[in-house]
Every structure is written in structure tokens, then in C-alpha cells.
Amino acid sequence: MKRNQWLSLFTLVCVLALTACSSEGGKTSVKIAEVTRSIFYAPQYVALEQGYFADEGLEVELQTTWGGDKTMTALLSDDADVALVGSETSIYVAARGANDPVINFAQLTQTDGTFLVAKQPNDNFKWEDLIGSDFLGQRKGGMPQMVGEYVLKQHGIDPHEDLNLIQNIDFANIPGAFTSGTGEYVQLFEPQASKFEAEGNGYIVASFGEESGHVPYTVFMAKQSFLKDNEDTAKRFTSAIYKAQTYIQEQPPEKIAEIVAPYFEDVDKELLSSSIERYKSQGSFAENPILDEEEWKNLKAIMEEAGELPEDIPYEELVNTTIAEDVMAE
């Protein structure tokens, strides 16, 4: 046999050997970028802690990227394979004419996750109490801010005319700014909202999630090319999330709090439990990973109301339900 033939045979044997090793004992690595750290994302942490990803042969690396813009940058620059972020970001990317659009493939939460926190207690809060107040807002064009504006307008309040709207604080620094004296009201996720209440730094007076209806608030998304080249990985990933979603629906908040506690080391477990109960009671955790068309329409209506919808992009272009449907059928 000629030398080149020997080399070709040797290369083939090596490739087959490596493939065999990978299928027997190797795990597929998946990097997730989450937009913030919140008990709102409890199903994700359950999937990690209960070994659902590992059971699917996945080794998941989780990073918190603090803000929709930073999260999407991580995804587009391949610092992450999957992003957990609001669906509005996929619309922004597509509207810029992306050659490799970002596709929503597994929904995690289905309502807004923020609560209106006041500096002073108010057992008889009315939305009109906000008029003329200093309101510490969120990032322009992000889901918390857009949903907040949508809800305020539903109550006859123009956020840009009737409030002193403060929007020059970075997302990660908003809680600290509020405790330092900036703003009379602020939108906060759990468990931060309940933690503020326990510490006397603020008081929950209303829920934006209860007011705004179902939206694809946080969704797992990936570049179209990733889903095409790694369809099996995406299915296994979604399967792990679906198991966690089912677990969340079936188990009491106290048990879930025990499982996710390692992700919130500075938060009391009783407070974690009450935060989970608050989200469960208002239906914030999606029961399955399918993002339906009605939710997509609601999202676009909220974006349009906020003046942030750059283009009316059809549901079919940026949402893949086939992966979730296949997982649920199995």
C-alpha cells in the first residue's frame, strides 16, 4: 500500500476512534448568556441543579451578561451559543438586516417579571399616585421599560410627560441607585424586590406581570446557523428545559427554593420561596417551551406602543416551534 493510502487510512481510523469516544463518554458543551440573575429564571437553575442538562449529554456553562444589549453582543460574537433574553432583541437584530438572524426556540417566562417598588409603604396604592414622581426607569427599548410604559399608559399615565423618568442608570446598578436615594419608584425583579422589602429599602405596591398579559418575556434563542448545524443539541437543550418547567409546575415553592439557592447565596431561602410563589401565582413561568403567535402579537403591540418596533417582522421568521413540539411529542 502506498504511503498516501496508509496516511488516509490512519486518518480515517483516528476520526472514527474520536467519534466513538465522543459518543460514549463525551458531553456537548453549550454556553448560555443570561440577561440577568433572577429567581424569574428558576426553571433554568432547576435544569442545571437537577442534572437535566447532564442527562441530555450537555455540559452547560452559564454566564450573566447584565442587559439585553450585552447579552445579544455575546451571542452574535459567539461568546455564547444560546442567549436567555427578551424576544424584542431578536426583532432588533433582524431589523438591522442580519445575515444570520437570531431565532427564538424555547420560551422560559410568559409575563413581565418586574414589580413596582415604592420608597415608602403605601397600602392603598393607586396608579395615579405615580404622577409627578421621580421614577427610576429601565433601559430604553428593553422589555422592562416597554412593558412599564405600556401598563402606565393603560392607566392613563404618560411616562414621559407625567413622570420625572430617570433612564441614565446602567441596568446592573439600578437597585443600588434606588437604595442610595435615586427615585421614589422603581421596577425590580425578584428576589431583589422582596429583599428590598425585607430590608426596609422599598415596598412592593404592584405587579407589572399581572397588568400586561402574556408576552415572550424571556426566551432561549440562538443564531439560525447554530440551530441548523446543531439541531440535536438544541432538542436536547429544550428537553432539559421542558423537564424543569414541568418540575416547577408540580413542586412547592419551598422545594424549588432549596434547589436554586446556590444561585442566590445572599438571599434567605424563605424569601426565595415567597418570590417563587409570587411568580407561580401570577403565571409567570411558562408551562412549556412553545412561544405562540398570540404572545408574539402582544409583544409587537407593546413595542409599537413604546415607539420601539423597528419593523413588523412575522412570527414565522424569528420563531421556531418545531424543536419544542418535537420534544413535547416525545
UniProtKB/TrEMBL annotation:
User: Any one cellular component term from GO for this entry?
Assistant: periplasmic space
* UniProt KW Transmembrane keyword: no
Q: Which residues form the signal peptide?
A: 1-22
Going by the entry's taxonomy, the superkingdom of the source organism is recorded as Bacteria
Which of UniProt's keywords are assigned here? Signal
Q: Where in the cell is it found?
A: Periplasm
- Major subcellular site: periplasm
Family to which the UniProt record says this protein belongs: Belongs to the bacterial solute-binding protein SsuA/TauA family.
Q: What protein name applies here?
A: NitT/TauT family transport system substrate-binding protein
Instruction: Supply the source organism's classification.
Output: Bacteria, Bacillati, Bacillota, Bacilli, Bacillales
